[in-house]
Amino acid sequence: MTMMEQLGMRLPIVAAPMAGGPSTPELVAAAARAGGIGFLAAGYQRPERLAEQIEQVSAATDRFGVNLFAPTPVGIGAEAYDDYRRRLEPWAQHYGVSLPEIPVEDDDRWEEKLAVLEEHPVPAVSVTFGLPTSTDIRRLQRTGAAVLQTVTTVTEAEHADIAGADALIIQSHEAGGHSGTWTPAAPPAPVELEEMLLHIRAATDLPLWAAGGISTPDRVREVRAAGAEAAVVGTVLLRTEESGANPVHQEALAAADREATIITTAFSGRPARALENEFAAALTGAAPLGFPALHHLTAPLRRAATAAGDAETLNLWAGTGWRDAVAEPAEALLRRLGS
């Protein structure tokens, strides 16, 4: 049985989990109505809020999933943290905000979120940033969930297979937002998605879903022809009616003068693809690794920029297909992509 069959999907389209607000319960429900599946983003969420969102989506559909950040923080030394904090001071003074003086390290409340999923079972759980222990994978599977592991290399795929994952989400360098790489200090080479699918299919028999820069029906057909069972889309959904992306982000995606996306660690301390803006251009070369410490460090700046309507200091996550993001109902867009 394919993973699509197991989850009751009629459309080979997956609404990607986008942490920080874009992946609303309404967007996840729209993906199910279209015949595909959508994922709530548990990353950064309070466990209580995650439980509320699961209950909200459950009232609308029994076909959806939840995405978790694996508990694999990227540490940062005090000296590197202090140096980057000093670089951010002019931005902080501009907005009149204070920045955390010491690194805030956490595991995104992993154990609490596992407990939420045990109390509120869902059909599918995807994991990114690293591989959970086999014990935790089995713990999720005992709730009835299929566990889908995000991978960016053949080696990651092989380890996920051995650990007991039910399926793999193959993410290429073209994806918007954070790379799911397990080794942020040595991110994977920019290999085309079709080539990744070919090599990973030779290494495992697990079902494969493809992610990264997919924003058109033709692109969906191409990755499926290359061996993907379904296509995972994210950036293309950011301007839909159900998206929770803030208006400043949505306007930036539609702006004619935005010219490129870049990979940057400037906002979170983890490699991520975003529309280039003043903050990313100024700090990408100097930003250290350090997640979630840098995420918490830049949070006051990003909140202030959102309040001020200033796109130049925001993490404008976007994949390479960002120009295909349009303002329309998500269900219609997803049906078109899967046609």
From TrEMBL:
One of its GO terms (molecular function) is dioxygenase activity. Pfam families: NMO. It catalyses: 3 propionate 3-nitronate + 3 O2 + H2O = 3 3-oxopropanoate + 2 nitrate + nitrite + H2O2 + 3 H(+). Keywords: Detoxification, Dioxygenase, Flavoprotein, FMN, Monooxygenase, Oxidoreductase. It comes from the Bacteria. SUPFAM superfamilies: Inosine monophosphate dehydrogenase (IMPDH). The keyword Mitochondrion does not apply. InterPro entries: Aldolase_TIM, NMO. The keyword Transferase does not apply. Its cofactor is FMN. Belongs to the nitronate monooxygenase family. NMO class I subfamily. This is Propionate 3-nitronate monooxygenase. It comes from Nesterenkonia lacusekhoensis. The lineage of its organism: Bacteria, Bacillati, Actinomycetota, Actinomycetes, Micrococcales.
